[in-house]
Amino acid sequence: MRNVELFIGNTRVDFFKDESISLNDSINNVKDISKVFTPFTQSFNVPASSTNNLLFKHYYKFDIDNGFDARFKADAILKLNGADFKKGGVILNGVDLRENKPRSYKITFFGELSKLKDILGNAELSALTDLFQYKFIAQGTGDDTLRMFENGITTSGVASTNLENTNVIFPLITLKDYFQFDNTNTITTPNFHNVSLFLDLKAQLKPAIKIKRIIEAINNQFDVQIQTADIGSKTSFFGSDVFNELYLWCHRENTPTSPEETIPPTFGLNFDKVLEVKTLADLTYTGGDPDPLSGGTLTINQGDLFTIRWNVAKTTATPVLMQLSAVDKNTGELLFIDEKAITNVATTMALKDLSAGQLDQRTYDIEFKFQAESPVTLVGGIGAISKNAVTLSNYSYTGFPLRNYGLIEDLIPKMKIIDFLAGLFRTFNLVAYTEGNSSQIFVQTFDDFMNGGTVRDITEFVDVNKSKIERPVPYSRIEYQYAPAKDQMSKRYIDAFGRQFGNLDYNAPERFDGSNFSLKSPFAHFIYINIKDVNSTFGFMDYPMGWCIDEKGEKPVLPAPLIFFRNNIDTSAEPVTGSNLNSYNAPSNVSTDGNHTINFGNEQNEITKEMVTNGIFDRFWRQFIVQSFALKGRIIKITAYLNNDFLINYKLNDVIRIAGRDYYINSIKTNLTTGKSELELIVKTVTYQPSVLT
Fold first, then answer.
1. Are 373 and 241 in contact (CB under 8 A)?
2. What letter does residue 314 receive in the DSSP assignment?
């Protein structure tokens, strides 16, 4: 018998003497290849002892203030014979009462990864505060169109030509026009050669953000540790060369990025234009002692009543509606807002008072947003901070233009963060796991994960008198599918070939009975096309573009979130007249070096017309599928009485050896008290080789 202990925080949970504590553990069940984030779980009952009653704060009593919050998992750890075994969380499911007295609590222990779903909840990509730093000037002086089209930016309009730091780009994906190339400038259709290109394109371009920046934003905001770089021998898919080239197109609506010249007279909180953002730290402190905003923050305590006022004016007398709002940039909480028509006469923007009665007592990192119905330039003014009607300090600011900004958080696809992550895992056959007491979430391709296992011989622990053998895979065909296509070029391909470009139907090598299974990626997949050269005998240039237009060629379409490789194309041999365009960002299904493609199967490169054979299936799925469909493949179900050393140290990528034959683990169900384990093992027919990630 083993000593099994469960700690919630620093408190050891009391168990029933006869309670059976079991654990189900699997990472990628061969019978359901669509599952991701599949940590172990187990439910059991614990007595309503004095210790447990205190721990769960007498949950059966409804009138207790600050009682146990059963809506969330509590941090917990399982121990075997005093050694840490599994880290995770416990949720309280309910209480069993007998004669109105508590008898037991029903709880469920979850593996560490399960907390990721709870932490992320229903939050969407647009809520990632780190993305707020990515903005670009969409109109007027300093327009970022050219620099983002030719190269890209790092943050807030800072230009970059370095791939690693090029975080936001404009890929050549148009929402209306198909571009042609005419160096004689005789055609009237949109001409890639003509200087008017940027006037034609500007309203059609949407930005794209490097996906790696999204993963980093998730880590920072939710205090999780998703692996984004290699750690020792553990390769990271999110830290790989291939992943670093992937971008997500920020196409939330079928409307242009650049705002229209006019907007409704009252635009409230649903802004089409975010013009300028300032923090308290941007202001020049001119008087008052002490400075209540030292460090760019404001601390509100009981009894405090602060008032913040701004004097604003513009250079001309024509009234322009302006809105000034303040938010806590750490939480996104709207603190106050004021809206007035401003002229060349200073106007006071009287903002709501800040007090402990209206806001929580804490420190706020305040960010001001200046917005207007049209681009204007504010002249110098002052901001005044008052406490209980007494002016404490004044702040000055110099004139600055209010320009049309595009914000990534306003343009990024409407998608839950957890669905975005699950989509990446499902598409690229990734594995997420933790080890020991670490909160580090390792992310590897399935091949790399399986390649890192250890051979463990458990022959002496196996009950040889009882076993079962089953066929491994209930499928005869697996369909790898991107989201249904909506654009014209993809629809034409379907009509011509009877399937969607980039998808793959994998059939078992030998004909056998089984059902079809669809592995569905949530992402869109485009066919990119060449720009036509009207003066060339061959007809087309090696200048790719995307065309996000409907079947009739009339209206933009809203596809599922689109991922693609960025290829920076050299155009210096045929520069755009008058614009000195020497390169541009072309979207592609093939990486820059040609070593990777995000087609699932073998497809013709739509630009070069060469066959590309190193798709997602070949790179990330083939070894697993070949192992699963092998003629000699079997699932072996056995019973073993595993010792403490094995249970503490095994990993799901280990190779299990029994009587000289090797197996992979499909699942393990263990009674932790007795050590009796029911194992589902897969006969090893493939030795997994590392993934090619460069």
1. no
2. B
**Cα–Cα distance measured from residue 85 to residue 79, given in angstroms and rounded to the nearest whole number:** 5
Q: 15: which 2 tokens?
A: 């168990």
Backbone angles phi, psi at 62, to 5 degrees: -80, -20
- Give SS3 for 45: strand
Q: Could you tell me the two tokens for 2? A: 């083993």
Q: Are 83 and 5 in contact (CB under 8 A)?
A: no
The answer to whether residues 393 and 285 touch, using CB atoms and an 8 Å cutoff, is yes
Distance CA 18, CA 3 (A): 13
Instruction: Look at the domain 276-402 and name its fold.
Output: Jelly Rolls (2.60.120)
Q: Exposure of 214 by Cβ count < 10 A (0-12 exposed, 13-18 middle, 19+ buried)?
A: buried
E strand spans, 571-653: 583-588, 603-604, 611-612, 635-641
Domains in the chain: boundaries: 4-120, 276-402, 453-472+630-683
Place of tokens 């798709």: 615
Residue for token digits 């709501």? 352
Mean pLDDT of the chain: 83
* pLDDT bucket at 270, cuts 50 / 70 / 90: very low
- Peptide bond preceding 690 in cis form (omega within 30 of 0): no
Beta carbons of 194 and 183 less than 8 angstroms apart: no
If 0-12 CB within 10 Å is exposed, 13-18 middle and 19+ buried, where does residue 564 land? buried
Residues β-bridged to residue 326: 336, 368
β-pair partners for 42: 109
Residue 322 CB: number of other CB atoms within 10 A?
23
Using left for φ > 0, alpha for ψ between -120 and 50, and beta otherwise, residue 568 falls in beta
Largest CA distance in the chain: 94
pLDDT in tens, 497-525: 999 999 999 887 666 666 778 889 999 99
Say what the pLDDT of residue 259 is.
42
- Read off the DSSP letter of residue 361: S
Asked whether 617 and 600 are in contact (CB, 8 A), the reply is yes
